[in-house]
Amino acid sequence: MCRLVVTAAMVSLVLALGWSTVGVQVFAAEGADPWTAPWIVAWCVEPLISLALLAVVASKAYLATRGHPIRSRKITAIEGLFLVLTLGMNTGPYLPWVADPFSFPKLVLHAFGPIVAVAIVAALPTVLDAFATLDHGGGVPGGTNGEYRENAGGRYTPSTPTPRADIGALTARARALIDARELPPFPGVHKLRDALGVGTTVARRVQNALNGQ
Asked: I want to staple 110 with a disulfide (CB 3.0 to 4.6 A). Which of 1, 23, 93, 173 is the partner?
């Protein structure tokens, strides 16, 4: 479900940025004749911003689905800068004190793509954090209830009750796997989750215990 949500959000983001590409091209071309050098180069302005934004958002989305959410003011500021530039170039020629005559529907239409992009970029990290800490029942935050465990490679059965997480025992087991070189010296949450058969939140607690936190 998490992957489905991320896929839908990224497709919507690509379409929103594609929508805004036309508006930015009009802004950057400044009335240049079609197929002249300024007109062609103007089509590259929005993709330049969009690809950088998509790289940042896709990285955050991928890492969040693997239990490593990025919380950085610098990254947020970069996203905000990209989106402000896109919104400004889309709506600049249609603002009340610029356009003659002014048309409110045109202003809304050209603001549509950047606003959708802003909404997706703002909402996606929160949604992915909620997925990462989802409690499927059984008293284990981020764990997986028995009825879903038939997908766990035969390690569980649907009737297996979900025990409460014993972080000390799980940490000791993780250390044993590290000593046996079945896990790397500093395993990530995703590897711990797979090796121990626990949820993301429990795996993160084990990782913190291994790191002495």
From this structure: 23
